[in-house]
């Protein structure tokens, strides 16, 4: 009874494939760590408040209070600077203006009475679609990358948020246009 080469071959392949399997597992582990680190950097990093320079602030105030001006244009930087200067949300909210939409990054600490996550800091992202015809619409709200169900948001997804506030656009505003990096607000006469 001699051993044929065919009968010893599978055992030889198993021994040779173990180093390949080990390399594959290590590579996947490194990929998960790197991917997780990139996700953390993109989703959990601190929101830096935008502080406008004295020159930027004075130019912005001149435009806002200019008599007879019916069109106001704000850059993304100016919007974030206004949030920081005129509210306590500078370190909690960041605005990004893209064509036809507003993206918000929100970081807030939940009340300690909230079940499960009470007292924890929550990172969220919201996408609002803006148009003169449809108003301001909540497109999505995600918490740690998970889209919240519409029922949890009081059925507000896809609805005009201005109508929920008793009007199509806020009083005194005739139109709003959002382009990449800026927002233009037209005032009524």
Folded structure, characterized:
The protein has 189 residues and is α+β, with helices and mostly antiparallel strands. The protein folds into two domains: 1-45; 54-187, no CATH class. The protein is built from four helices and eight strands. The chain has a five-stranded antiparallel sheet. β7 and β8 form a beta hairpin. The chain is elongated and about 80 Å long.
Secondary-structure map with pairings?
Layout: H1 5-44, H2 54-64, E1 71-75, H3 76-86, E2 93-98, E3 101-109, E4 121-131, E5 135-143, E6 146-147, H4 161-164, E7 173-179, E8 182-187
Antiparallel strand pairs: 1-8, 2-3, 3-4, 4-5, 5-6, 7-8
Brief summary:
With 189 residues, this protein is an alpha+beta fold.
Continuous helix count: 4
Average pLDDT taken over every residue: 83
How many separate domains?
2
Query: In percent, how much strand structure appears in the residues?
Result: 25-35%
Q: Biggest sheet, open or closed, and with what strands and sense?
A: 5 strands, antiparallel
Question: Which labels suit this protein?
Answer:
2 domains, 3-stranded antiparallel β-sheet
């Amino acid at each position: 009874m001699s051993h044929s080469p065919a009968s010893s071959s599978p055992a030889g392949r198993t021994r040779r494939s173990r180093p390949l399997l080990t390399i594959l597992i290590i590579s996947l582990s490194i990929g998960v760590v790197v991917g997780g680190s990139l996700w953390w950097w993109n989703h959990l990093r601190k929101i830096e408040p935008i502080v406008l320079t004295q020159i930027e602030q004075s130019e912005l105030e001149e435009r806002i209070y200019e008599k007879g001006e019916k069109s106001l244009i704000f850059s993304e930087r100016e919007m974030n600077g206004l949030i920081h200067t005129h509210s306590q949300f500078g370190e909690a909210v960041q605005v990004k203006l893209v064509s036809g939409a507003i993206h918000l990054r929100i970081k807030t600490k939940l009340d300690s009475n909230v079940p499960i996550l009470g007292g924890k800091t929550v990172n969220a992202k919201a996408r609002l679609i803006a148009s003169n015809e449809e108003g301001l619409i909540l497109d999505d709200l995600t918490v740690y990358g998970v889209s919240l169900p519409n029922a949890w948001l009081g059925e507000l997804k896809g609805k005009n948020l201005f109508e929920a506030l008793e009007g199509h656009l806020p009083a005194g505003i005739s139109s709003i246009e959002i382009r990449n990096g800026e927002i233009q607000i037209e005032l009524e006469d």
